[in-house]
């Protein structure tokens, strides 16, 4: 499932109402001592909010990855070698103004002729491949298990118990959010009519005196919402609608054991059934399917072109591999997506998806090993359950009982834009063994379909930040191996000396060194310095 944090939608309102090949040597020294870094006390400016992941902890007192500093002090206009980055996700809006100049194109394929010109098994795969076909909505993996009725399957009883609890909760959530949405909509519509504008302030609403029953009820509702932290009914309506849509999808599709969203005509439980299933249309099927476009922008939105966002990497071609639906991805699709990316030249693969049940985990694990064996980095989001993935199942992974099968797999947790105790995003999974690094993932501004931009949060946003760093380092120092690039990213990060709140639980405070294998947060500036030294 796409790993966007649902905290705002699912808790806030509910709680309220319920260079050259080798590159030249770098003479700088990595920043290591951050013990005395002050905590930023003022609110971030709009520019800082939209770019915080690229800022510098020492200079800006914001725990970004020092991307801008790396460009101004180290890269200085050097383009390096082009790196192909595959985005296995919900599809990319390849016509987006900030992405259309950084797309991978399969030059061996003739567009639209219905022939597999390059004989790679996929017809008309011009900018990637779509393993979902025209599909969009899907069940969660454990719901598929319940729906199978196979009571002898491993974890069936666990899945059944989880289904009964989650479906009941989703029905309750939908009813609750429907009621809240209706209340907010009625109040906002009445106030919009009164002011003849959708833009009005709490002060203006509080000043209303009226004998009109409808308007008086709207003022009463608005005052209640304002008293509980809302400052704009228009914005609140938009966000609450997101909650309504989320629970509606849960009830109708994700948690519906009788639903089947598979439209590609293959058997998802047979890895070899119907080779080449899907199609070459890598664009999302609807505007709201924005996850992959957002992820792509974090990696490689064109830098400094006067448009909405800057990607981390400056010399990348994005390969779109659509394999993540509105629900849980199929193991078969992910395994084939990884192999497709490797076979067609990707050097970095981003996987901002995950789930806790995986009936064919070995298929995906074999594909991850295939990527490693072919010198390709696979970056994976750690997940948004606020859990320890050393003890809780989280797929895909690169190990069995902590024995790794890949030396190029990087699992990434998410940071928030606040240095200090709250630096870990409350939703982020963690793990001293199974999470490698942390990177900016909360409140990330990036591209969305139809030339728009938006802020989203999740480990889904942290993974592409690291994929971008990997591509940037490799672009500048292409003689490095994938394993070396991974190790550079892990070793060159900044260690956080303070204790941090873990899993969003204010009572669970641990040293930052206990939440990941590297004990560090990714730093682009330091990574380039270490890469330069290793490349000598």
Automatic annotation (TrEMBL):
A Pfam short name: Peptidase_S8
PROSITE patterns assigned to the protein according to its UniProt record, in alphabetical order: PROKAR_LIPOPROTEIN (PS51257), SUBTILASE (PS51892), SUBTILASE_ASP (PS00136), SUBTILASE_HIS (PS00137), SUBTILASE_SER (PS00138)
Signal peptide residues on this chain, from the entry's feature table: 1-25
InterPro entries, per the entry: Pept_S8_subtilisin_bacteroid (IPR017308), Peptidase_S8/S53_dom (IPR000209), Peptidase_S8/S53_dom_sf (IPR036852), Peptidase_S8/S53_subtilisin (IPR051048), Peptidase_S8_Asp-AS (IPR023827), Peptidase_S8_His-AS (IPR022398), Peptidase_S8_Ser-AS (IPR023828), Peptidase_S8_subtilisin-rel (IPR015500)
Gene Ontology molecular-function annotations: serine-type endopeptidase activity
Catalytic center residues: 89 (charge relay system), 291 (charge relay system), 460 (charge relay system)
Ranges for domain Peptidase S8/S53: 80-492
Any one GO biological process: proteolysis
Keywords recorded for this protein, A-Z: Hydrolase, Protease, Serine protease, Signal
Keyword Nucleus belongs to the record: no
Family listed: Belongs to the peptidase S8 family.
Protein name as annotated: S8 family serine peptidase
Phylogenetic lineage: Bacteria, Pseudomonadati, Bacteroidota, Flavobacteriia, Flavobacteriales
């Amino acid at each position: 499932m796409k790993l966007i944090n649902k905290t705002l939608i699912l808790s806030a309102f509910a709680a309220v109402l319920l260079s050259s090949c080798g590159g030249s040597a770098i003479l700088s020294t990595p920043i290591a001592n951050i013990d005395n870094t002050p905590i930023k006390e003022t609110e971030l400016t709009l520019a800082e909010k939209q770019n915080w992941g690229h800022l510098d902890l020492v200079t800006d007192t914001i725990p970004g990855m020092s991307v801008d500093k790396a460009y101004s002090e180290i890269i200085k206009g050097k383009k390096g070698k082009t790196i192909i980055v595959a985005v296995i996700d919900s599809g990319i809006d390849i016509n987006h103004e900030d992405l259309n100049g950084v797309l991978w194109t399969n030059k061996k394929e003739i567009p639209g002729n219905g022939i597999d010109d390059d004989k790679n098994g996929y017809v008309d795969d011009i900018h990637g491949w779509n393993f979902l076909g025209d599909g969009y909505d899907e069940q969660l993996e454990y719901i598929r298990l319940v729906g199978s009725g196979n009571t002898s399957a491993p974890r069936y009883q666990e899945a059944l118990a989880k289904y009964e609890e989650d479906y009941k909760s989703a029905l309750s959530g939908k009813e609750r959010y429907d009621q809240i949405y209706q209340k907010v909509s009625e109040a906002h519509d009445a106030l919009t009519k009164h002011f003849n504008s959708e833009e009005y302030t709490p002060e203006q609403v509080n000043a209303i005196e009226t004998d009109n029953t409808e308007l008086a009820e709207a003022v009463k509702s608005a005052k209640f919402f304002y008293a509980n932290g809302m400052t704009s009914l228009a914005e609140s309506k938009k966000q609450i609608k997101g909650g309504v849509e989320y629970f509606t999808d849960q009830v109708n599709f994700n948690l519906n054991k009788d639903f089947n969203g598979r439209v590609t005509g293959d058997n998802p439980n047979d890895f070899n059934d119907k080779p080449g299933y899907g199609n070459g249309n890598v664009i999302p099927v609807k505007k709201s399917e924005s996850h992959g476009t957002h992820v792509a922008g974090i990696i490689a939105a064109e830098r400094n072109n006067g448009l909405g966002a800057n990607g981390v990497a400056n010399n990348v071609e994005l390969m779109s591999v659509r394999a993540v639906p509105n629900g849980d991805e199929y193991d078969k699709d992910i395994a084939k997506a990884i192999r497709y990316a490797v076979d067609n030249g990707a050097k970095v693969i981003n996987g901002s998806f995950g789930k806790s049940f995986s009936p064919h985990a070995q298929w995906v694990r074999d594909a991850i090993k295939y990527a490693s064996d072919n010198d390709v980095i696979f970056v994976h989001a750690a997940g948004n359950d606020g859990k320890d993935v050393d003890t809780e199942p989280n797929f895909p992974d690169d190990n069995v009982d902590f024995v790794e099968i890949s030396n190029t797999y990087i699992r990434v947790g998410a940071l928030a834009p606040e240095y200090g105790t709250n630096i870990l995003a409350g939703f982020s999974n963690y793990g001293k063994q199974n999470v490698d690094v942390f990177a900016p993932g909360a409140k990330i501004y990036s591209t969305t379909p139809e030339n728009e931009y938006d802020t989203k949060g999740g480990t889904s946003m942290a993974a592409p930040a690291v994929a971008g760093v990997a591509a940037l380092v490799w672009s500048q120092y292409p003689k490095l191996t994938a394993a070396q690039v991974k190790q550079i990213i892990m070793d060159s990060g900044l260690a956080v000396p303070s204790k941090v709140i873990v899993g969003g639980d204010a009572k669970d405070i641990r040293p930052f060194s206990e939440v990941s294998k590297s004990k560090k947060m990714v730093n682009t500036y330091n990574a380039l310095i270490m890469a330069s030294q290793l490349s000598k």
